[in-house]
Amino acid sequence: MINTVTESSAAPILSVRDLKTYFFPDEGTVKAVDGASFDLLPRTTLGIVGESGCGKSVAARSILRIVERPGRIVGGAILLQQNGSQVDLAQLDPQSQEMRQIRGGDIGLVFQEPMTSFSPVHTVGNQIVETIRLHHPVSTQEARERAIAAFRSVGIPKPERRIDEFAFELSGGLRQRAMIAMALSCGPRILIADEPTTALDVTTQAQILDLLRSLQEREGMTIILITHNLGVVAEMCETVVVMYLGRVVEEGPADAIFHNAKHPYTQALLRSIPSIHSTARAELPTIAGSIPHPYNRPAGCPFHPRCPDFMPGTCDKAEPGLTVVGDGQAVSCFLYDRT
Amino acid sequence: MTEPTVRPGAVVDEEVALLPSVAEERISVATQWQLMWWRFKKHRLAMLSTVIVFLFYLVVVFADFLAYSDPLASEAQRSLLPPHRIHWFDEGRFAPHVYGLTGKRDPATFKRVYTPDPEKKIPVRFFARGFEYRVFGLIPMDRHLIGVEGATAEETLFLLGTDEQGRDLWSRLMYGTQTSLIIGLVGVSLSLILGVFLGGISGLYGGVLDTIIQRVIEILRSIPTIPLWMGLAAALPNDWTVIQIYFAITIIISLIGWTELARVVRGRFLSLRQEDFVMAAELCGCGQMRIIFTHLVPSFLSHIIAATTLAIPAMIISETSLSFLGLGLRPPAISWGVLLQQAQNIQALAISPWLLIPSIPVTIVILAFNFMGDGLRDAADPYGQ
Amino acid sequence: MLAYLVRRLILAILTTWAVSVLSFVVIQLPPGDYITSYIAQMSSSGSFVSEQEANALRQQYGLDQPQYIQYIRWMKMVLQGNFGMALEYGRPVAEVIGDRIYLTMVVSVAAIIFTWCAALPIGVYSAVRQYSWGDYVATFIGFIGLAVPSFMLALILMYFGFTLFNANIGGLFSDEFAEAPWTLAKLWDLTKHLPLPALILGLAGTAQLIRIMRANLLDELGKPYVVTARARGLSEGRLIIKYPVRVALNPFASTIGYLLPYVVSGSIIVSLVLSLPTVGPLLLKSLVAQDMFLAGTIVLLLGVMTVIGTFISDLLLMWIDPRIRFEGRQ
Ligand SMILES: Nc1ncnc2c1ncn2[C@@H]1O[C@H](COP(=O)(O)OP(=O)(O)O)[C@@H](O)[C@H]1O
Ligand code: SF4
Ligand SMILES: [Mg+2]
After folding, report:
1. Smallest CA–CA distance from C18 into chain B, residue
2. Distance between CA atoms of C251 and C253, rounded to whole angstroms?
3. DSSP code for A12
4. CB of A335 sitting under 6 A from ligand 2
5. B63 C-alpha vs ligand 2 centroid, how far in Å?
6. Using CA of residue B62, residue B63, residue B64, residue B65, what is the dihedral sign?
C-alpha cells in the first residue's frame, strides 16, 4: 500500500489505514468498506464522495465504532491523535469508557435525517444537556447554559425557547442546526457530517454549508464531509476521497481532483454535475450501468463493468493498487499503475 | 387494454408486442405464488403445523372410524374408569391386549374400585367390528381402527378412561374434535363473508360508510364481548334441537372474529387502490367489477388466507369457552368445551385427571393454526406491515 | 391535543351508548318479558299471579310500550341508580351485584399490571438479545400464553394446586374474610390472593405484549436517533432504556385499549373456575335463570367500566407522548 496525501507538513489528526468493515448477514458477506485509507489533516475539510451504497456511511460509523450487527471491522487501523499519543480506535472495545468519551467528546457526528436523528419523545435540549453532562462534570443548569450557547453559535434564533421544543416542532433547517449544535456541544476536534444537506431544500442547504464553513474558519474545526454531491465538495473541501464499492479509487487535493481527475470513475462523476448548486435528487445519472449488487462484487477492478477505459485481460484479472500520480494525488487504476 | 392506435403498418408490430406480454404476465403470476410457497416452506414450524392441522382434519373426516365405542353409550357401572394401558406383546408374540378390570366394592366406603387384572387379557384388534356408522354419511360400515370384539360392560377398552356417565373418553374426543373443528371452520367462513363484505365496502367506497363501519368496529373491539355472546347464547330457546343450537352457536361465534378480518380486508383494499396497476386498469376503462376480480382479489388473497388462518384459534377458543360454561353446545352434542365441562368440578378432577385430556388437542390445534398463520403471513408479505 | 381529546371522548360516549343498547338487547332477547319470568318464578315458588295483576304489572313497568320507549325508561331508571329487581334473589340488582363489580375491576387491573410488569422487561430483553437463549424461552412462554385459553390454564393450575399442595387455590379471600366487612386486614388478604388470578388472566395478554414490545423495539433500535445517541457516547444500557424503550412504550401503553376488554371478558370464565367473587359467576347464573335485569346490568356495568378504563389510558397516553400532545399545533 502506497502512502497517501501529505499536503502540508502538519501531522494528520486521524488516519484511516486499510480499513475493512464487512457485514455478515445470513445470505452472505457484504464488504461495505474494503481496504480504505485516508488522512485527515487538522483544520481542513475532507470530502468523501461516491454513489449511494459505496460505503461512505459505514466508513464514518466505523471511525466512531458504532457499526451495528451483523457488521464488524475485520481489519485495518483508525489512528486518532490524542495529546501527542496515538490511539487505534479499531482496537478499542466499542463499549469501553475510552471509546464512549471519544464519541461525542472528540468526534461529533451529524446525520442526514435531522428529523429522525432526535428522539421523538424528548426535547432537543434534553438530549444536548445529556450529551454535555456525559462528557463534562457540570451541573444541569450549567449544561443548559452551554446548550443554549451552542444553539446560539449555530444561528438558532431564540435559543432559550427552542431548546425546550421537540424536533418535530422545528423546521428542517433549524433541526439540522440543532443537530450540528448537539454534535458541537462538547467541543469535539473532529466533526463528521454524513450527507448533512441531502434532506434539505436548496436554500437551507446553502445556509447549512455556510454554517459549516464558518465554524471551520471560526473554531478551526476539522471536518469530514460525506456526500454524493460533488458540487458540495467543490464548495467546501480541501481534500477529496472518492470511494467506489468500499474502496478508495482516487484521492487528492480538491483542485487536482476537480481539474485533473485521473480515475475514470472520478471523471464520470465530474461529468454528471449539472451545476454547482445541484439538487439532492440528481444521483449521477450519466454513469453507465449501476452499482453492482454488494454480494456479487466484480472480480479485478470493481469499476470495470462500467468503465469506458476497460482493458480486457488486465482490469478484470487483478485489482489495481493506489498509485501516486501527482502532488498528493493518488489513484487506483491500471491506466496509471506501472507495476 | 387500450385499443392499439391505428397506424397502418404498425399494427402487426403492436400485436406481436402484446402477445408475449400477456404470457409474461401469466408467468409472473405463477412465480408470485411459487415464491410464496418457497418462503412458506422455509418456515419449518409452519410446515409442521400445516401437517398437524391436516391430521386433525383427518380426524374430523374419520371420527367414526377412529372411535371404537358409541360416544353416547353411558353405563353407570363404568363411571370414571382410568385409562387402559395397551400391552403390545404377550409372551414375546405381538398380541396387543389390555387387562380387564375387576370391580370390587370397597367394604368400608361401598364404592366400586377397579383394579386391572393381569389374568383377564382382553385382545385388542385392528379394524375390529363395532357400532355401525355411515362413511361420509352414506356407506354403512361397522369397522373401526381398533377395538375389542364382543365387548361386554366389563370387557372393553378405555384408551383415555371414562367420564362420570361411564362413556369412553377416546371415542368422545374423536367426535368432540369433529364438532369443534367444523365449528371453527364454518365460523371463520361466516366471519370471512362478513369481514370481506364490510371491510370491502369500507375500503372500496370510503367516505361516510367507511367512517361508520370503522367506528362500529372500534366500538365492538373496545367492549368486553364475552358477556355479550354469553347473553346471546343464553337466549337460545331451550326447546331447540341440537342441530339448531349448533348453527346458532356457530353464527354467534362468527360474530367474534369478523372485525379483525374486516380490518385486514379494508387495509388491503386501501393499499391496493393506490397501486399503479389498478390505476392503469382504471385508465384503460376496465369496469369496477373487473378491476376487483382480476386485479384486487388475487393479489390480496394471500393476506386474507393468512388472516383467516389466524382467526380460527379465536373461534375454537370461543366455542370451547361457551360450551364449557354450559351456554354453547349442550349435551348430547359433543365438543371440546362440552368434554372439558366435566373437568369443572375440582373434586372429580382430582380423582380422575384424565378428564383434562381434551385440553391437549385444544392447545395443539391453537398453536398449529397460529404457526401456520404466521408462516402464511410472512410468506405473503415478507417485508411485514 | 384538543382534537385528540375530543375524538376519544366522543368515541367513549358512542361506545357507552352502544353498550347500553346491547345490554338492553340482552335483556329483551329471551322469549317472554320480565313479567312472564316473574310469574314463572312466583308460581314455581307456589304463589299465584292473576292475569289482571300481570297486566297491571306490565303497565307499571311499561312493558306494553314500544321497544324504544322501554329502552328510554330503562336508561332513566339506570341513570337514577335503579337497576331493577333481581328475580331470583328477590332483591334489587344493585344490592345483589354489590362489591362484585369492583372486585371484577380489581382482578382485571391486577391482570393488566401483571401483564405490563412481565411483558416490558421480557420484551426488552428479547429484542436486545435477539435469538439468544432467553429470547427463545420468552418466545416459548409466549406460545403457552397464546395457546392455552385462560380457563384451561386455571383448570390445570387448580388441579396441580389440589393434588400437589392439597390446597384450594381459588377464591379472592380466605374463609374468615369472605363475608367480613372491609378492613385493612381484608384488603391485605385480597392482595395476597390476587397474584394467581392475575397471572392466569394476564398470561395471554403478556404473550401478545411481549411480541408487540419485541417487534416495536427491534424497529426502534435501528432508527437514526438511536445511532445518534450512540454517537454521542451514551452507554448501551442507558441508551436503550432512555430512548427506544421509551418510544416503544407508547404503542405499548395504548394496548390497554384492547387489553382491558379482553381481560374483563376472560375474568368472567376464569372466575367461574377459580370461584372468584366477581360478577362472572353471577352473570352465568342470571343468564341460565333468565334473570335478565341482573344479566343486562352486569353487561352494562362491565362495558361502561371498560370504556372508562380505556379513556383513562387515552389520557395517560396523551400525557406520555408529546407527539399526541402537540398534534395539530403546527
Ligand atoms: N446493517 C447492514 N447490513 C448489511 N449490509 C449493510 C448494512 N448497512 C450497510 N450495508 C451495506 O453496506 C454498503 C455501504 O452502505 P453505506 O455506507 O450506507 O453507503 P453510503 O455510501 O450510501 O453511505 C451497502 O452496500 C449496504 O448494502
Ligand atoms: S483499472 Fe481498468 S477498469 Fe478499473 S478504472 Fe482503471 S481502466 Fe477502468
Ligand atoms: Mg450514507
Report:
1. B219
2. 5
3. P
4. yes
5. 73
6. positive
Residue in A247, A287, A306, A311 to alter for ligand 2 test, most ligand atoms within 8 A of Cβ: A311
Question: Comparing C-alpha atoms, which of A102, A128, A106, A126 is closest to residue A182?
Answer: A128
Residues β-bridged to residue B116: B101
Q: Which amino acid is at B333?
A: A
In tens, the pLDDT along A264-320 reads: 888 888 877 655 444 554 444 456 666 777 667 788 888 888 888 888 888 888 888
In chain C, the domains with their CATH numbers are 12-93 (no CATH), 98-327 (1.10.3720.10)
Q: With CB atoms and an 8 Å threshold, state whether A120 touches C247.
A: yes
Please check whether residue B30 is in contact with residue B23, taking contact to mean a CB–CB distance below 8 angstroms: no
Tell me, yes or no, whether chains A and B touch by having 3 or more C-beta pairs under 8 A. Answer: no
Quote the minimal CA–CA distance from C187 to chain B in Å: 27
In this predicted complex, what is the ipTM?
0.82
Residue at B261: amino acid letter = L
User: Which residues fall within 8 angstroms of residue A73, CB to CB, at 6 or more apart?
Assistant: A19, A20, A21, A62, A65, A67, A90
> What pTM value is reported for the model?
0.77
Tally of helices (H runs) and strands (E runs) in chain B: 13, 5
Q: Which helix (H) or strand (E) holds B65?
A: helix B63-66
Spell out the residues 6+ positions from residue A105 whose beta carbon is closer than 8 angstroms to its own. A135, A186, A188, C233
First-to-final CA distance of chain A: 12
Kindly give the distance from the C-alpha atom of residue A63 to the centroid of ligand 2, in angstroms, as a whole number. 28
Q: Work out which ligand 2 atom sits closest to the CA atom of A315.
A: 2
Residue bearing cell 433541526: A175
Nearest CA residue ID for atom 3, ligand 2 = A304
Facing residue for C233 by CB, picked from A105, A113, A120: A105
Cis before residue B8, ω within 30 degrees of 0? no
Domains observed in chain B: 84-157 (no CATH), 172-379 (1.10.3720.10)
Contact call for B231 and C299, based on CB within 8 A: yes
Nearest-angstrom CA–CA distance, B244 and B229: 17
Grid coordinates representing A81? Answer: 491523535
Q: How many residues does chain B have?
A: 385
Backbone angles phi, psi at B358, to 5 degrees: -55, -20
The preferred substitution site among A297, A310, A339 for testing ligand 2, maximizing ligand atoms within 8 Å of CB, is A310
Count Cα neighbours of C38 within 13 Å in the Cβ-side half-sphere: 19
CA dist., res. C36 & res. C65, Å (int)? 16
Amino acid at the residue C272: L
Which residues approach ligand 1 with their CB closer than 6 A?
A: A 23, 25, 30, 32, 50, 52-58, 68, 71, 294
Report chain A residues touching chain C, CB-CB < 8 A.
61, 64, 66, 68, 95, 100-105, 108-109, 111-113, 116-122, 127, 130-131, 134-135, 166, 168-169, 179, 182
Q: How many Å lie between the centroid of ligand 1 and the Cα of residue A55?
A: 6
With CA atoms as reference, report the closest residue to C134 among C145, C124, C148, C143: C124
Between C15, C156, C257, which is nearest B356 by CB? C156
Which residue in this structure is represented by grid cell 485527515?
A: A40
Strand, coil or helix: what is B52? Answer: helix
Calculate how far, in angstroms, residue A54's C-alpha sits from the geometric centre of ligand 3.
8
- Tracing cell 334473589 back to the chain, one arrives at C89
- Per-residue pLDDT tens digits for B185-214: 999 999 999 988 898 888 878 788 888 888
Cell 365438543, residue located: B335
Which helix (H) or strand (E) segment holds residue A25: the answer is none
B115-129, B322-336, C168-182: which range is least confident on average? Answer: B115-129
Q: Residue B154: its pLDDT value, please? A: 57
A264 lines ligand 2 (CB under 6 A): yes
Q: What is the Cα–Cα distance from B188 to B311, expressed in whole angstroms?
A: 7
C-alpha to C-alpha distance for A229 and A224, rounded to whole angstroms: 14
